[in-house]
Amino acid sequence: MPDQETRFAVLMALGQQGDASAYRELLVALQGRLSAYFSRRLAADAASVDDLVQETLMAVHVKRATYDPGLAFSGWLYGIARYKLIDHYRRLKVRRTEPLDEARFAADLADDAEAAGARMDLEELLGRLPEKQARAIRLTRIDGLSTREAAAALGTSESSIKVSVHRGLKTASASLDDSGKTDP
């Protein structure tokens, strides 16, 4: 409900500015929302719903300064509620399992196959570059090392790494046609 979302955001912003009645109104309104949220997830443990609602409202109060009025209030609220639910499961040592969704599993496999193909294309492309350039690109762009760390690993200067990466990327880019495939 967009108008409910706006109402909550306004009440929270007023509460952050010190308006106690707006803040009280917000907390009362959130009580029903949170109760429904936890009831759906804890059907077998209805006794814990009220406790989790109160824990979440206390966390909202403690963390109210972290709410950014420019962002969606519900996302912020349900993020807190989700972490309270996870904490609850941890206290009970509950591991919740979800049934395997065959369609999603197949989509994940397709994504894995696509990623493997991209890795093979990347390795082929790097294999066409001079070793110094390929190693510099691999360390800085793939492994995430800084130029300083890559220079130390390769026993060279930072400027040498920067030049190698620049030239390697330029050569690799030139070897690609418009469709993203490597030229034979």
TrEMBL record:
The keyword Transcription applies. Gene3D superfamilies: 1.10.1740.10, Winged helix-like DNA-binding domain superfamily/Winged helix DNA-binding domain. Residues 33-93 form the RNA polymerase sigma-70 region domain. InterPro entries: RNA_pol_sigma-70-like (IPR039425), RNA_pol_sigma-70_dom (IPR014284), RNA_pol_sigma70_r2 (IPR007627), RNA_pol_sigma70_r4_t2 (IPR013249), RNA_pol_sigma_r2 (IPR013325), RNA_pol_sigma_r3/r4-like (IPR013324), WH-like_DNA-bd_sf (IPR036388). It comes from the Bacteria. CDD domains: Sigma70_r4. Keywords: DNA-binding, Sigma factor, Transcription, Transcription regulation. Residues 120-170 form the RNA polymerase sigma factor 70 region 4 type domain. Belongs to the sigma-70 factor family. ECF subfamily. This is Sigma-70 family RNA polymerase sigma factor. The lineage of its organism: Bacteria, Pseudomonadati, Pseudomonadota, Alphaproteobacteria, Maricaulales.
